[in-house]
Design goal:
There is one protein chain. By secondary structure, this protein is mostly helical. It is 77% helix and 0% strand. It contains 8 helices and no strands. It is elongated and about 90 Å long. The two termini are 42 Å apart. Keywords: Membrane, Transmembrane, Transmembrane helix. InterPro entries: DUF4760 (IPR031876).
């Protein structure tokens, strides 16, 4: 083989390697930038999750709401109960939206909050369905993303958190 052919082949191999390496770096940079834009909203969500008021409202939704009659929907409840329903319901729905948009890792959210999603939807379900019925709204309204996310979680057991964290470290 001629020396010039070897040099040209070598140059092509180096060029292809450079394109592959640049593509990988660009992909990682794009992901980091995409996730970096959402750090502040995620921190705000986590601050809310850490508040005493949030946990009291969550406990009310989980323990007390199922004892109330659902025949008048959400709007038939007093203002304080409605506030708790919407605060907790839309909080969890927002996490489900962020997971759906791949802003936060769906596996992480569903593993970390699996039980809370299931308990929240179980308590809210009769009130939400009755509210939709009373207002003549279609199924895809009022906490619909929360409903689908919780149904998806019910269909599969939560992942093992250690395994999930180990997979994240390997990436």
């Amino acid at each position: 083989m001629d020396l010039s052919v070897l040099i040209n082949v070598g140059a092509v191999i180096v060029s292809i390697s450079a394109v592959v390496a640049s593509s990988r770096i660009a992909r990682h940079q794009f992901r980091a930038q995409r996730h970096g834009n959402h750090v502040e909203p995620l921190i705000d969500l986590l601050k809310e999750f850490r508040s005493l008021e949030f946990h009291r409202s969550y406990a009310f939704i989980r323990d007390e709401l199922p004892k109330l009659p659902s025949d008048k929907g959400i709007s038939g409840l007093d203002d304080d109960v409605q506030r708790k329903i919407y605060d907790i319901g839309y909080f969890f729905q927002l996490y489900a939206i962020l997971a759906h948009l791949d802003i936060i890792d769906r596996r992480f959210v569903s593993t970390l909050l699996h039980r809370r999603y299931v308990e929240t939807w179980r308590s809210l379900r009769p009130f939400v369905h009755k509210e939709r019925e009373l207002q003549g709204l279609p199924e895809g309204t009022i906490l619909n993303i929360l409903e689908h996310f919780a149904a998806d979680l019910l269909a599969r057991p939560p992942a093992n958190m250690r395994t999930l964290l180990a997979q994240g470290r390997r990436r």
